[in-house]
Design a protein that fits this description.
The chain is of the alpha+beta class. The protein is built from 21 helices and 22 strands. It has three domains: about 220 residues, Histidine kinase-like ATPase, C-terminal domain (Heat Shock Protein 90), CATH 3.30.565; about 140 residues, 2-Layer Sandwich (Ribosomal Protein S5, domain 2), CATH 3.30.230; about 130 residues, Four Helix Bundle (Hemerythrin (Met), subunit A) (Up-down Bundle), CATH 1.20.120.
Amino acid sequence: MSKEVLKFDAEIEKIFQLMIHSIYENKEIFLRELISNASDACDKLRYQAVTKPDILGKDKEFKITIKADKEAKTLTITDNGIGMSRADLIKNLGTVARSGTQRFAQQITGDDAKDSNLIGQFGVGFYSSFMVAEKVKVISCAAGGKKAHIWESAGTGKFTIDEAKEKYPRGTTVILHLRDEEAEYLDEYRLRHVIETYSNHVAFTIALIKEDGTEDIVNKGKAIWARSKSDISEDEYKEFYRSVSFMGQDEPFMTLHNKAEGVIEYTNLLYIPSSQPFDLFHPDRSTRVKLYVKRVFIADEGIDLIPSYLRFLRGVVDSEDLPLNISRETVQNNLVVQKIKASITNRVIKELKTKMTKDLDGYMKFWENFGSVVKEGLCDGYEPRDEIIEICRFRTTKSGDKTITLKEYKDNMKEGQNAIFFITGDDVESAMASPQLEGFKKKDYEVVLLTDSVDEFWVNVLHEYQGIELKSVTRADSEDSLEEKDSAKAQDEDGEKKEDVKSVNIGEHNSVELVSFIKDNLGDRVKDVRTTHRLTDSPVCLVAAEGAMDIRMERFMVDNKQMAQANAKVFEINPEHPIIVKLANELAENKNIKTLSDTIHLLFAQANIIEGEPVKDIAGFNKRMNELMQKALAA
Ligand code: ADP
Ligand code: MG
């Protein structure tokens, strides 16, 4: 096939424009990206050679070379890795086959300052070479392939692809024609410095060809995780973090470098980031830790090595106990992998617990970033939930700006308190404003404030902590916990248990009348109507019926179309509230029935609003409200 002129994907074109006009200061990272690609290419071929040793031919030593030519103003990066065929070149360097590229392109805003910040965050791989080069030529010969192909582009919307006339050895050569103002990257010392800064950890030899033609080996050429801790500098750890994390200039929050010896042997060099990766809440929830076997890269995607609730972890795990020819598919059900996973999980949780105990302020930075992810682990019965819950921290009605663990909550429980109470809400403020809390505050019971959407799930899965029930204050049955003492008292005084101690303020008879009047008025919009002890200041509230889903959980299901519509709630009234007392009295005298009915509708609307539920009949609501205001103003 002869020369073809092809167009870049529109998305890639955006990236090109950004690179060519980049005001990003840290342009030198282009070299890190190209070396990283060369290293990946060597990794890939080494993996293939495990099952097909012949593929290496005579060229068995993997190597990356870098050569500057001052006269031609070119910088050339060569590897003897897996190489690319014609089709590979078109796909890999011309389309958005990679989801990372696509996501990057989607984030581009057109605002130079913002976008150059993105370059730092994403890395952006191969295309970063256009920050320094006006023309890029890639010559590649795939391992096992016969012919080399040349990809060439000046970044103007199109690239060409052609068969190479000459013969090239296996691997890839990237030739950058540097812009005049980027001549610094032709300088040996400058190059050496950049390579040492960013690529020291690369597990293959990186050679710089000097002007006199001799070679200089720049890096250590040994996988960083296989080296001993004492031999690795802070900067090297950081740079490796940046190369495996795609987290730009983020600093590692925690570095876990261990060698496990015993039943299973593996080395882990894992990092917890200091900020949230951009794809933390991407629906696929995939993990990014790379699996190596005896220093050979196996896979970093689609392997079950790290539980998804620890998906913020970056880094590598290298095992001595797995067969080298393990495929990405067989990793899934491999028993050793499962054991490594469990062992790493425990190690990470243990380290986090230690951090929490020793440096709570520091730990809180982690918790703010990743707490809602960690709590996902509480939903999975196969995970060490007893351990996970110990590193979870919560705001409560009593904790102020601080947070506590459920253990601390348990230690502070009041005499007679039979459950751990919680309320869910969009944020702490709105949760704190919930009328359902009133009775609990009066009793001086602490209530945990849960504001992450994952909270709706784990509380429903976990049910209890150390044998103590977790109870939502927005459920009908949680009121029993408030009643207990009162009814016990009533029992003492009268010798028998009173049926309904709540209706004392409005009288037994009036209470029954009012409840049935409300039921008639609201019809099937309510599941039930009843008096409550839950409230002190508010006249009414809504709660979920016994056995029904929590209110916010239900809304979540409806929002996500997993439920057609919300169920009717239990409407609770506060028999001590002046409005309710007045309603009951007027009803007993059969007075102002229309106003009573309007008031009930308005109270019901109010209860819905507090829950963040929409008021269904807005026109009716406004009409009633206006009438009431008119009356109030007239009085
Ligand atoms: P990434 O490395 O994150 O996949 P890049 O933009 O750096 O993204 O590279 C795009 C793709 O081009 C790579 O995934 C790889 O398939 C291919 N590629 C780039 N450089 C090389 C190389 N030196 N050898 C073989 N393939 C390469
Ligand atoms: Mg890359």
